[in-house]
Request: fold
Amino acid sequence: MIRKSIILSAVLAASFLSSCKDDNATEDPIETEEITFTKEGEATLIKASSGDTIQQIDIEIADNSYERETGLMYRESMEDDQGMLFIYDNEAPRAFYMKNTYIALDIIYFASDSTAVSFQKNAQPQDETSLPSEAPAQFILEINAGLADDWNIEVGDKIDFQRVD
Reply:
């Protein structure tokens, strides 16, 4: 009986030791594909007072629930002549946040008539603070932080956009 106990103990000890993870072993990193910009349209920002073009940019379009929820998350960079346009079915109060977003952004909220109604400038990466519109919005444009000021975009200015093939 003692012999069976010793053998059983030895087998259990061996199986326990062989199942322990080697703390010095390194795990292979998970490879992920970089998310790159895909031009889906063009947007022109227009000065309300003169009708002059402020800036033209290439845009990605987020017009379904998944795309709007994901937005620019996990992006490492964006060119200054690029942006993401969020399109909703109706005009309503909107709020964005920067969870899993790695680049600082200016967020411009536009009403259903394409008029800029408010801004959230220099939204900081990874910040989960709510960034609400100050008025109902149907279209929201995200561009690199600082560009709204550099381009002198103001409340009342307009956006015109079209999809490209």
Remarks:
- Helices lie at 2-19, 65-70, 147-150.
- The first strand starts at residue 41 and ends at 46.
- Residues 62 and 86 are 5 Å apart (CA to CA).
- Confidence is low (pLDDT under 50) at residues 16-22.
